[in-house]
Amino acid sequence: MTQTIALIGLGAMGHPIARHLAGKRADTSETIVAVDADPARLAGLGGAEVVATTDRAAVAGAEVLFLCLPDGDAVEATLFGPDGVAERLAPGALVVDLSTIDHGQALALHRALDAGGRRGLDAPVSGAPAGAEAGTLTVMCGGAAADFAAARPLLERFGTTVLHMGPAGSGQLTKTVNNVLYDIAIAALAEVLPMAVAMGLDPDTLGQVVTTGTSRSYAAQYFVPRILRGEFDEGYPMGKAYKDLVSAAAVAAEGGFPLPVTAAATATYQTALRQGHGERDKGAMVLPFEALLGVRVRGKG
Questions:
Q1: What positions carry a catalytic annotation?
Q2: What values do phi and psi take at 103, rounded to 5?
């Protein structure tokens, strides 16, 4: 019996995920369909392993549909817009959303899928494009336990840590928590590193301490070398990533949760956005503080 597994969204994360889904097929009875509106993103896919196309109609009849899209609005439009694919899927099909979207929007999508006789799993990923390329992503899933069990063998083709976080929306809530903690760490680096340099510390040796000492974090290990080199255009654009803090603020407002440190980090983020750094990565949060203190956190190399 054949099974069609489709994926829509072949960006920096979706393209390698599609390759892992195809390359680690259990048997040849699976058909993998990879879809993106941009023909250039189909490069490297196709042939016997993958049907690569710009036509979303190719997902018709799929039993499993993965989505790897920029935001919740794109997910909603793809599923339920004028040319939405939800109704084209097989009855009872499982939609696995790998995108990072708002918690409330995830809950609404679960309800809409259920009303249409399909199942949903919110399953955002963490690990950046490098993790997607290596097939070592962390996948945080929200939905019915039975749906998680059904999807898990597929998720393990591109993820090494695949977790069921709880009912619908729990995956997105976990991703929000993960991303906000990451954002706070970057905001702290952005304000403290310029202060240290302004007080006379050498940026290179300071960078060695904060990437190896007790203050080290993934944020420091990723961004500090890039800040020292003056590189701010390699990571995910800050303007697009801002949705994580917006989502956290919505959850906090609805639940009445005080988040003072998150609010302070959000202000740092907003300052960089207001100064026109939205197309740069999160490391660019250091630039307003450098300008304020009249220093540059740059290495000699």
A1: 175
A2: -55, -45
With residue 263 as reference, give the H or E element that holds it.
helix 260-274
Angle between helices 170-198 and 203-212 (to 10 degrees): 150
CATH code that applies to domain 174-293: 1.10.1040.10
Strands 125-126 and 137-142, sheet pairing: antiparallel
- Estimate to the nearest angstrom the gap between the alpha carbon of 223 and the chain centroid: 17
Domain spans of the chain?
3-167, 174-293
Tokens describing residue 121: 């799993």
- Structural tokens at position 235: 């990571």
Structural contact between residues 36 and 14, judged by C-beta atoms closer than 8 angstroms: yes
The pTM of the whole model exceeds 0.70: yes
**Helix, strand or coil for residue 27?**
coil
Pairing mode of beta strands 94-97, 64-67: parallel
Give the model confidence (pLDDT) of 71-102 as tens digits: 999 999 999 999 899 999 999 999 999 999 99
* Architecture of the domain delimited by 3-167: 3-Layer(aba) Sandwich (3.40)
Q: Which residue has the tokens 């006789």?
A: 117
* 285 vs 168: CA distance, rounded Å: 33
Cβ burial 50-65 (10 Å sphere, 16+ → b, else e) = bbbbeebebbeebbbb
Amino acid, res. 159? G
Residue with tokens 């697009």: 240
Q: What are phi and psi of 71, to 5 degrees?
A: -160, 180
| Whether residue 1 has pLDDT greater than 70 | no
